[in-house]
Amino acid sequence: MSVTSTTTLDSQLTATWGSANTYADVPMVMSGYTSRLWPHDCQPQFWSKYQVWEWLQQVMDMHQIDASSIPFQNFDMDGHQLCSLSYQDFIRAAGSVGPILFHSITELKWSGASESLRGQYHVEIGQMDIKPEIDFSCPFPDVAPGVNLEIYDPTIHPLAPAASPTPSSPDIKRSYSRPHQVKKHSPRGTHLWEFIRDILLNPERNPGLIKWEDRTEGVFRFLKSEAVAQLWGKKKNNSSMTYEKLSRAMRYYYKREILERVDGRRLVYKFGRNARGWRETEK
DNA sequence: GCCTCTTTTCCTGGTT
DNA sequence: CAACCAGGAAAAGAGG
User: Fold this and answer.
1) Is A277 left (phi over 0), alpha (psi -120 to 50) or beta?
2) How far is it, in rounded angstroms, from Cα A267 to Cα A224?
């Protein structure tokens, strides 16, 4: 399926996931992506995989095409690989959207930047290098079987330099139903809520999928519900994942107080007291 | 093979 | 009408 060899799919993911640029916390994903949101100060050849996805997302938005209508997995590649795709490759990867994408990337290649997409261009270069060396891992780390999720559980993240010297959260664990038992299982890799959280914590790797509504309160909103579901499905190796199903899993979190209900607002969720690692200043 | 736990799948019904 | 939201039920998967 994928235009590139899928051999390094995940390794690639993991690899590029950790090396994206950081752009200022512009309210980018705000209103229909009308605002600027090109985090790339470089040519597409140098984009990371997530910048590629960001570009994808935006081109789709610009053309009013549902982003979930193309398989993002087919663009599981960095800018260099993207730029080497042929017209036919784009068709294969994105069907009828292929030509649009091809046209866009061709223009970008020639202009060397993103003029073709946004008129003018400015990036907070000052912010570009503050990429934290702490790698709290990608939302889709293929965690080695033995690896404990605490390892990449970002109780520490760039904005909140480690409030807790001791990694992870010794406190609450699973207080529901088994008060004194500390974690029986560490399910395959990441839990859904952690996956979501990690996307949120990595805006530079989050191509407009989910957005904070209230950072301090832990309220967030899905912008591309189906795209997130696809991503989750990809991580779980389940191509039939949908937002419908993902949201059911999210609703189970209410009872466990990992999430709090936010009524009346579609696609909006809020982290609950049993969700950790999302705060700017973990207390 | 059994258990626990999380997530998936399906579904009915209500809401925006 | 489409896209969500709420949960119940059952079952799948994974690890212990």
Assistant:
1) left
2) 9
Provide, in whole angstroms, the distance separating residue A244's CA from nucleotide B11's C1'.
12
Angle between helices A243-255 and A192-201 (to 10 degrees): 100
Tell me how crowded residue A137 is: count the other CB atoms within 10 A of its CB: 20
What are chain A's domains?
A: 6-127 (1.10.150.50), 149-271 (1.10.10.10)
Q: Is there a contact between A257 and A176 (Cβ–Cβ < 8 Å)?
A: yes
Between the ranges A89-98, A127-136, A180-189, A248-257, where is the mean pLDDT highest?
A248-257
**What gap in Å lies between CA A24 and CA A197, rounded to an integer?**
19
Tell me the residue type at A148: N
Convert the pLDDT of each residue in A25-61 to its tens digit: 333 333 333 333 344 456 778 777 767 776 776 676 6
> A251 CA, C5 C1': separation in Å?
9
Residue A238: CB less than 7 A from any atom in strand B: yes
Strand B and A92 CB separated by under 7 Å: no
Nucleotide nearest to A186 (CA to C1'): C15
Nearest nt to the CA of A241 via C1' is B8
- Nucleic strand B under 7 Å from the C-beta of A187: yes
